[in-house]
Amino acid sequence: xxxxxxxxxxxxxxxxxxxxxxxxxxxxxxxxxxxxxxxxxxxxxxxxxxxxxxxxxxxxxxxxxxxxxxxxxxxxxxxxxxxxxxxxxxxxxxxxxxxxxxxxxxxxxxxxxxxxxxxxxxxxxxxxxxxxxx
Length: 134
Known about the structure:
This protein is α+β, with helices and mostly antiparallel strands. It is 25% helix and 22% strand.
């Protein structure tokens, strides 16, 4: 009679061994040479030339929109804060901001017509009652 070995499901043992022996290999994408193992065979001057030619990692540009201006306008609109808007020609306009968009603000005034002011015409603005001289 033949000696028999108890059958072991091949699926379990093969998967467990293969899974345990796997190694994570991450290629270095920042280097231009494809043969990383033979880098020590190059002369030091060649290595320096390669390092100089490799472009340094660039920083990402800051976001263009910080929403700080939007936040400021929203806060002043909600509380109907009395504002002083100083125009480029030095004229001061008093009122509160009713709405704004990318190019202009609407200033409501008591006892005077409401104004739509283009943002490029504004020198600066401040809350009424604060010292706004610059």
